[in-house]
C-alpha cells in the first residue's frame, strides 16, 4: 500500500489513506480559531484599562496556547496516528500536514522532541503569559523553529509532496511562529528595559 | 578499521584512533578554564560596586561563552574531525567526548543543530550577558539540553561506551548547563519582577 508523502522510499507500513479533504481539515481549524479570537476580542473589550495591543496579545496567547496543547499534543501522544482504521479529526490533520513535512508521519525524533516541548511546556505557559513569561515562551518558540528548520535542512530538505505544500505548510504555516514571537519578544524586551530604567532612576534619586 | 564507540554497528569509515589520553585532553581544558575564571575573579575584584555574585556571574558567562564558541564551534565547523590524519586538540577532544555520546562522531542532525545554535547564537550572547540577555541565554541553554536529552532517549539511549562515560560525560559534564542556567534564570526572573514592581509603585504614587 503506497502513501502520498516524500521521499517516496519512506516506509509507512499500515498507512490508512486520508479520508477528509484539505478544506474539511483546514476549515474547522481556522473557523474554530477565528471564533476563539473573536470571542476573546469582544470579551476583553468589556474590561477597562486594556489597550488594543493588550487585547490582541490576549487573542494570540490563547490561540497559540490552545494550538500547542490541542493540535500539537494530539500529534505527540498519538504515535500510530497514520495507521488508525478509524482516524479522528486530529489524526487526519497530521496526515494532511505531513504532505508539507513527512517527518511527522515518519516520527523523526528531532521533530517529535520539539513538538513535545512545545505541547507540554510552551502550550500551558502561553495561556499564563505575562511580561517575563511572554519573552520566555517567545524565545522557546523561536528556538523550536530554529531546530525545526535547521534539522529539516541537514536531513535532506525533501519532505514535501510539491512546492505548494512546501510554501503553504512548511514555510507558510510555520512563519506565524517566527514573526509574531519576534515582535512580542522585542516588545517585552523594551518593556523590561524600561522597568529597569525606572527602578534605576528611583534608586539614584 | 574498528572504532571504540557504541553502538558497535555504527559506521565510521576512515576513523583515525585517538592519540591523546583522557588526562591529556581534560587537563588543558579544565586548566585553561580554571585560569580564565581565576583571572576574571581577580580583575573583577578591583572594580568597586561589584558584589561577589556579580563577579561569580562574570566568571560563568565568560567560561560558558568561550566554551560555546571555541569548544562547540570546533565541533560544528569540522564535519570530518574523526577522519583527520593530523587531528588537532579539539578533534581529539570530540573523539574523547563521543565515548559518552556517539551522536557526535555520527554527526546526528539534532545534536548538530543544538550545537550550531549554541556556538553561533548562545556563545556570543553569553559574552554580552546583561539582565534580560542572561535570562534569554539561560532559557536557550535549558531548551538545548532538553532537545539533547530527549532526542538521545527517543533515538535508543545507547550512545555511550560504558556506564562510566554515561555518568561522567553525558550526564556529569552536561549537568552544569542544567543547574547553573536554572539558578541564573530564577535570579534574573526575580530581578525583572522587582523592576516591574518598582516601576508600578512609581506610577501609582
From TrEMBL, chains A, B:
GO cellular component annotations of the record: membrane
PROSITE patterns (alphabetical): EXPERA (PS51751)
Domain EXPERA: 53-185
Pfam families, per database record: EBP
Keyword Transmembrane helix belongs to the record: yes
Topology of this chain in the membrane: Multi-pass membrane protein
Membrane-traversing stretches: 25-43, 132-154, 166-186
Keywords assigned: Membrane, Transmembrane, Transmembrane helix
Subcellular location: Membrane
Entry-linked InterPro entries: EBP, EXPERA
Family listed: Belongs to the EBP family.
Record-given protein name: EXPERA domain-containing protein
Organism: Urochloa decumbens
Amino acid at each position: 500500500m503506497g502513501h502520498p508523502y516524500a521521499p517516496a522510499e519512506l516506509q509507512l507500513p499500515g498507512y490508512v489513506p486520508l479520508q477528509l479533504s484539505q478544506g474539511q481539515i483546514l476549515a474547522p481549524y481556522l473557523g474554530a480559531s477565528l471564533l476563539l479570537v473573536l470571542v476573546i476580542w469582544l470579551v476583553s473589550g468589556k474590561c477597562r484599562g486594556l489597550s488594543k495591543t493588550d487585547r490582541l496579545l490576549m487573542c494570540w496567547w490563547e490561540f497559540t496556547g490552545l494550538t500547542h496543547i490541542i493540535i500539537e499534543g494530539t500529534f505527540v501522544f498519538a504515535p500510530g496516528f497514520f495507521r488508525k482504521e478509524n482516524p479522528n479529526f486530529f489524526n487526519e490533520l497530521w496526515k494532511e500536514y505531513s504532505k508539507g513535512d513527512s517527518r511527522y508521519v515518519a516520527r523523526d525524533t528531532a521533530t517529535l522532541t520539539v513538538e513535545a516541548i512545545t505541547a507540554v511546556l510552551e502550550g500551558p505557559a502561553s495561556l499564563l503569559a505575562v511580561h517575563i513569561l511572554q519573552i520566555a515562551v517567545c524565545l522557546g518558540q523561536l528556538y523550536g523553529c530554529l531546530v525545526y528548520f535547521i534539522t529539516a535542512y541537514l536531513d535532506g530538505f525533501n519532505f514535501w509532496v510539491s512546492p505548494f505544500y512546501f510554501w503553504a505548510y512548511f514555510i507558510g504555516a510555520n512563519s506565524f511562529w517566527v514573526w509574531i514571537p519576534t515582535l512580542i519578544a522585542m516588545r517585552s524586551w523594551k518593556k523590561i528595559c524600561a522597568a529597569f530604567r525606572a527602578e534605576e532612576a528611583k534608586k539614584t534619586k
